[in-house]
Amino acid sequence: MYKEYSPCNILAPFIYHFWEYKGETRSGLKFNIPPHGCSDFVFTGGSAADSIRNGLIMKPYHSYFFGPMNTFTELVARTNFIHIIGVRFRPCGLFRFIEIPLNELVNQGLDSQEFPAIFSQSFIYKLCESNQNPIDTIEHELVRYVYKNNMDTEKQISYAVSLISRQKGVVSIKELATEVCLCLRQFERKFKFYTGYSPKEYSRIIKFWNAIHLLKSNISFDNLLSVAIQAGYYDTPHLYREVKRLSGNTPNAFLSLPTNEKVEVLHFEL
């Protein structure tokens, strides 16, 4: 039901991936969506009516912007079928298309018409009604935007983001600031403006995902303490608190999942 699609080479520096959730469901089914350190544009098809995400009622034939999240969000289905398409922007990637301070949109979901959006309402109707592949249609529109706008990406913060990912969230914030040639205060301010997160918050999310992949991997661990230490946590309670806060579930819930099952969206009965 959940699939991901890689962007073309032109968009790859700015977009992490396109994603699609499509299929039968049940009214009242709850989906937990962990934070990814990114922001998303979400499109609802004509059959995806009245889903609720963090109190926001997602209507058909609409697009929504979800800013950076620092905890898991909930989506509750109110129909028997859902079709949702998303564009997940890399940290700093959204600024290639629109200038907006992401630190003001943390944990917020907005109808795209509520702020200067990339996609017009006419484009959304065209997307929902067209027989063409919707991912291709969205990608074409974004490529058009890249050539239309000449805004530069923030190279210092983008580099810092890549360093945090490379170190799997286990980093020194002071050393990061030095590495990108900024004083600590300026580094933290710019990082939050362009990503929505403090460097520490973003590092916690990256560390969380590393822990989840370790929990789901085929690597043999004696106990959760081994996973915690490998992922950079102090002890098992520390791992437990972080996984619970960011996913709404305990580490044990991920141990029982098949290694090939995606954990970007987790669903439960209400």
Relevant terms:
AraC_XylS_family_regulators; six-stranded antiparallel beta sheet; 270 residues; sequence-specific DNA binding; Arc Repressor Mutant, subunit A; 36% helix; Jelly Rolls; single chain; transcription regulation; DNA-binding transcription factor activity
Protein model, in words:
It comes from Phocaeicola sartorii. Pfam families: DUF6597, HTH_18. InterPro entries: AraC_XylS_family_regulators, DUF6597, HTH_AraC. This is HTH araC/xylS-type domain-containing protein. GO terms for molecular function: DNA-binding transcription factor activity; sequence-specific DNA binding. Helix 6 packs across helix 7 and helix 6 packs across helix 8 (236-247). The chain folds into two domains: 2-148, Jelly Rolls (Sandwich), CATH 2.60.120; 155-247, Arc Repressor Mutant, subunit A. The model has no long low-confidence stretch (mean pLDDT 85). The two termini are 19 Å apart. Strand 5 (51-53) and strand 6 form a beta hairpin. With 270 residues, the chain is of the alpha+beta class. It has a six-stranded antiparallel β-sheet with strand order 1-2-9-4-7-10. It is built from nine helices and eleven strands. Helix content is 36%, strand content 21%.
Sequence-ordered SSE layout with sheet pairings:
Layout: E1 2-5, E2 15-24, E3 29-33, E4 39-44, E5 51-53, E6 56-58, E7 62-66, E8 73-76, E9 81-89, E10 109-111, H1 121-129, H2 134-148, H3 155-166, H4 173-179, H5 184-195, H6 199-216, H7 224-231, H8 236-247, H9 251-255, E11 266-269
Antiparallel strand pairs: 1-2, 2-9, 3-8, 3-11, 4-7, 4-9, 5-6, 5-8, 7-10
